[in-house]
Amino acid sequence: MSERSKVSKHTITRRGVLAGMLAASTGAWAAGLEQAVPNSTGSAPPRLNAPAGACDCHHHIYDESFPVSPHWRQGSTQGATVADYRLLQRRLGVARSVVVQPSTYGIDNRCLVDALGQLGSASRGVAVVDTEVKDAELKMLTDAGIRAIRVNFVSPQSWGTTTPAILTTLAKRVSPFGWHVQILMTGDQIVTHENVIRSLPAKVVIDHLGRIPQPDGMKHPAFTAVRRLLDEGRTWVKVTEPYEDSKLGPPYADSSEVARAYVQAAPERILWGTDWPHPTQRGTKPDDALLLDLLADWAPDEKTRRRILVDNPAELFGF
Fold this sequence. Notes:
There is one protein chain. By secondary structure, the protein is α/β, with parallel strands linked by helices. It has 11 helices and 8 strands. The chain has helices at about 5-25, 80-90, 110-120, 135-145, 165-175, 185-200, 220-230, 255-265, 290-295, 295-300, 300-315; strands at about 55-60, 95-100, 125, 145-150, 180-185, 205, 235-240, 270. It has an 8-stranded parallel β-sheet with strand order 1-2-3-4-5-6-7-8, with helices on both faces. The longest helix has 24 residues, at about 5-25. The radius of gyration is 18 Å and the shape is globular.
């Protein structure tokens, strides 16, 4: 019997019990429900029951109440408010979340802070700041639930093009606050900047599987670079956005090979997330239930899945 079949077999019997337990303890859901969600294909719940305290470690919130950064020319995303995200939580049965500041708002983190205020103690945040940020602002963001900065080498930023010098300076600024540094780079950029990443004075989280190009996959030097960083013990990897570099489409067998290898190498430093509302996908949006179900393939062992969904986020983000 396949792992997906095993998971499906236990869904009905476990779902009601877990839902009641988690609702009593956290006010969230422990098993997914049929639910249509903006910016997500399908409405069926995942076959995989998320354990109590499971965390979506990468999603965004967009709210028209807050202005788009003057540097941003690619528009905003509709149907991605906190209320919309709660529908996704209900569908997936995920209790905790990490809200990541999108490039849309630049270094203005007011939407992020507002979202954390609405989501409460079950959420943490990843902010975007520039090198001129004041300690008072970093303290305020820490108090609001921010635990990291995101440094993006792929999309335009309010300061222009991100450089290794900017990355190093930002890491030095936020390290005294106990924050880690979340890095979005293409695979080729990771190869170029591996030594810079290694030298940062903070824990590092690599976004989106390291953006390993397909069809090269595990043969690409970026995969080897990420593995070296993982093996050294200070780097974490988000097994998110498998659709972005896949050449095969759902269920993303090519990207899944990379994700599976990361999980096998360092299950104690792997994080999972949806990347909802999937801002890079302008056409059909991914099926978020499928994205959770992929963990049954990437991490067949239930204890490993619990580590990825519950224990690792609790350790890194302080839940």
